[in-house]
Amino acid sequence: MIKSIYNWIDERLDITPMWRDVADHEVPEHVNPAHHFSAFVYCFGGLTFFITVIQILSGMFLTMYYVPDIINAYASVDYLQSKVAFGGIVRGMHHWGASLVIVMMFLHTLRVFFTGSYKAPREMNWVVGMLIFFIMLGLGFTGYLLPWDNKAYYATKVGIQIADSVPIAGPYIKQLMQGGDIVGAQTLTRFFAIHVFFLPGALLAMLAAHFIMIRKQGISGPL
Amino acid sequence: MSNHDQHESSHKSVKRKEMSRRQFLSYTLGGAGAFMGAGMILPMVRFAVDPLLVKKTESVFVKVVAESEIGNEPKEFKFQINQVDGWYESEPQIAAWIARGQDGKIYALSPICKHLGCTVNWNTQGDNHYFCPCHGAEYTVDGKQLKVAPKPLDEYQVKLQDGNVYLGPIIPNTRV
Amino acid sequence: MAASSKGNEKVVYVGDSRIRKGTSPNIPADYSAFPGKSEAFIPNFLLKEWMVGVVVLVGLLVLTIAEPAPLGYPADPLNAAFIPMPDWYFLFLYQLLKYPYVSQDYLVLGTVGVPGIAFGALMLAPFLDTGKERRFYRRPIASSLMILSLIAIVYLTKVSWDFYTHELRLTNTIPEHKLREEKAREAAEKGQERPNPMKKEKPAALVDADDPATAILKKAQCITCHAADLQGQAGIPALAGVGDRLTKEEIAEIVTNGRNNMPSFKEQLSTAEIDQVATWLAKQKAVQ
Question: Region (Disordered) spans which residues (chain C) (predicted)?
Fold first, then answer.
């Protein structure tokens, strides 16, 4: 049954080569921890992606309860964490996952750096990877305003002040981030939109580019 | 067991199905994937379906009006209830049409039309009926549906105490 | 038309479309060039990756159960006791801004200059480090710069964290999220409801609400700001219950000279009237 549906689609779209390419490509010995234990350093990229998936899923579920509004934001976070079953776990996954994703990405970056894998012909993939790094930091920064507690509030104030110190464009960036004249209701909705729609959208596009380039160029050779 | 073995060895054509290394790896991979998926998704799904599984809280009776003010003609009374909706706690005002029935018992009708949820009003057409302005549904003084609506108006549970009328949760109409 | 003369056509289209049939199929690079054993991505290699993934997932779940995600008290712009701290991965940038030449007049160096150069260089690494050599010990400049930055990041993060813990000890502060958890746990042990910081306390009732002083409050338009029920409004304190916070003399002083955004009332009210109002307000105590 499933096979015949698959065949029907395959006849029309020729989808087999797409996944065959991913599934059957050969992984060389030097990245395989079964052959050289030190090759475990090559797993951090995959783990970053895995935790990113956890972040996206847990974030989607958190928005079922969260409201980006200065009066209700704190109350809704408090509610979902302490009153809803498994709320503590889902929020915990999102909170600690955010830290973990940074750690994994950091290790992945170091691996790529110290194995010199960013060198020709993989320069573009390194730049895209760095963009992913910045997007992740942006997600972290916009994310911790959302519960609207004191830490959120003051960290965001400092962050916006830092943006303000940029020469010439500073005040405009500040106003753009802040929305209104103070860090308040308009800031929160902005940060929410950026955290939930804009940055994840950019992240997915960058991830796609990252993976396509890896597939196209293959893993860098042994040292 | 030995019987079975003999049986199998007697048929040369029966091929023993052994798992290939690739198959084994595929199953293990599937298992690991399923574990990861479940570990990730199950807490989130339980989190999402929580509203289905929470117990409904019993609503309490609220004092609305003195018994002596209730006549045979339905009159609208507004009262406040304490409503906890997730993290949002409020005290919205709701309305009830209270009257003394033919049997002398006090009853209270909810003015939410059973057709599509508009608010009905008493005797706006001069015919001693509840009338719904949205689609023209009509109900008798007891809340029995006459036109358009499929069901009679809901009732509030009524409790009389110390000469006051207390209203509780909404129940299906008991008078028709 | 294309179908009839397939062999002779220079350009061959796919099916009935105008899409050119690709001439060079995308054949992924294989690793036959590399010595040693390679293996298929699925299932052999991915299984190894996922085994690590399972360990990480279990670790993450254990962490979420052992350590609830922190949540402090609702944002309060007037809270001066709060010691702000960014998340750990921003600490090094946060600490950097405390040093001379990257603060005060040179703040822009700390916020844009140093991080801009560091991250810019990192982003452009493939164009700065263009040699063929990939081993890190054969690339002394790139590697030593990276190691130096790593040491700097670790050092700055540690200094920042130490300063924070020192500050906490000094001011005898418990971080808000810990305090909140502690309070919730205490309440649970006593069988009370969890304290909800969003829930306002019951407003204090007015004492002697029909005192003649209330007429003065109306006359002086106190109620336009402090609200008709004297419960205050956004940013303006309640007068009900003010007796718990201030003495009669302090109230009289504030009414006479004003405070913060509150204007002085010595023009509108006589000293006797101010005294009358202050006496009445000082009586406004929630707890009798």
Answer: 180-204
In the prediction, which pLDDT does C33 show?
A: 56
pLDDT, position A42: 93
pLDDT tens figures, B28-47: 999 999 999 999 999 999 99
Query: CB distance B32–C50 less than 8 Å?
Result: yes
pTM for the model stands at 0.78
CATH number given to C88-172: 1.10.287
Chain A contact for B1 (CB, 8 A cutoff): no
Contact between chains at B32 and C57 (C-beta distance less than 8 A):
no
Mean pLDDT lowest for which of B54-63, B109-118, C226-235, C277-286?
C226-235
Chain A residues with CB-CB distance to C87 below 8 A: 98-99, 140, 144, 155
Mutation for C interface: B29, B35, B40, B47, most C CBs within 10 A: B29
Q: Residue A60's closest chain B neighbor by CA?
A: B44
Numbered ranges of CATH 1.10.287 in chain C: 88-172
pLDDT: which is higher, A151 or C263: A151
What's the confidence (pLDDT) of residue C3? 46
Residue from the list A23, A28, A167 with its beta carbon closest to the beta carbon of C34: A28
Which homologous superfamily is A31-217 in?
Cytochrome Bc1 Complex; Chain C (1.20.810.10)
- For every residue of chain C, DSSP letters joined together read -TTTTTTT-SS-BSTTSSPBPPSS--PPPPSTTS-S--EEIIIIIHHHHHHHHHHHHHHHHHHHHHSPPP--SBP-TT--S------GGGHHHHHHTTSTTSSGGGHHIIIIIHHHHHHHHHHTHHHH---S--SGGG-HHHHHHHHHHHHHHHHHHHHHHHHHHHHHHHHTPPPHHHHHHHHHHHHHHTTPPPP-TTSPPPPPPPSSTT-THHHHHHHTTHHHHH-TTS--BTTB--STTGGGT--HHHHHHHHHH-BTTBPP-TTTS-HHHHHHHHHHHHT--S--
Band (C79; pLDDT cuts 50, 70, 90): confident
CB < 8 Å from B in window 20-59 of A: 50, 53-54, 57-58
Q: Which of residues 114-153 of A touch B (CB under 8 A)?
A: none
Q: Which CATH class is domain C213-282?
A: mainly alpha
* Domain ranges, ordered by start, for chain A: 31-217
Q: Does B150 touch chain A (CB under 8 A)?
A: no
A70-97 residue pLDDT tens: 989 999 999 999 889 999 999 999 999 9
